[in-house]
Design brief:
single chain; 177 residues; alpha+beta; 4-stranded antiparallel β-sheet; 3-stranded antiparallel β-sheet; 7 strands; 21% strand; elongated
Length: 177
């Protein structure tokens, strides 16, 4: 039996994410151009404002590049089949997450985003699959904070969070029985 479920990347959601990233890049540029103007509140020091601007431009600039690549790609964001969950939806995607490694799936609220955390038996196996240093750092932080390096969000997919959560839990239950 090989039932395969493919969930495409949502071009509309990716476009909205790109617009948000561009807005943050603009804010970063303003921080660099005139740090004294923004040296109020939490960021009282102009040097901190300047560094924050540089970091913002780097992070959201890289994010924008990745989003643009995904916008022009026709690849599937998430595949669910008899082997496991194959994720290609984010910068920390590691490809196939085998059913035999998955202990459970739970929703966590991380900042304003609902995230599906994939609890796994051997986190190091998947941390070693990190594609770059940024992904590696994020996965290590996720593991320390949430107990797993693996998480999925529906932000870039053609599916709502609740539907994705229900689908993954149902598919996991089928494999456990």
């Amino acid at each position: 039996m090989n039932n395969k479920i493919e969930i495409k990347l949502s071009k509309v959601k990716l476009l909205l994410l790109l617009l948000g990233a561009i807005m943050f890049i603009g804010i970063g540029i303003l921080f660099i151009i005139n740090p004294d103007e923004f040296a109020k509140g939490l960021l009282k020091n102009p040097e901190i404002v300047y560094v924050s601007g540089v970091v913002t431009i780097i992070v959201f600039g890289l994010s924008s590049i990745i989003i643009i690549i995904k916008l022009f790609s026709n690849s599937v964001g998430l595949t669910i089949d008899d082997h496991g969950i194959t994720d290609h939806s984010s910068t920390t995607s590691v490809g196939l997450i085998e059913w035999s490694d998955i202990i459970g799936i739970e929703t966590m609220q991380i900042a304003s985003t609902k995230t599906l955390v994939i609890d796994i038996k051997n986190p190091q196996k998947y941390i070693k699959k990190a594609k770059n240093k940024m992904a590696l750092g994020t996965m290590k932080r996720n593991c320390k904070s949430y107990g797993s390096p693996l998480s999925l969000i529906s932000e870039a997919l053609e599916i709502k969070h609740k539907a994705l959560e229900r689908l993954l839990i149902e598919e996991l239950e089928k494999r456990k029985n």
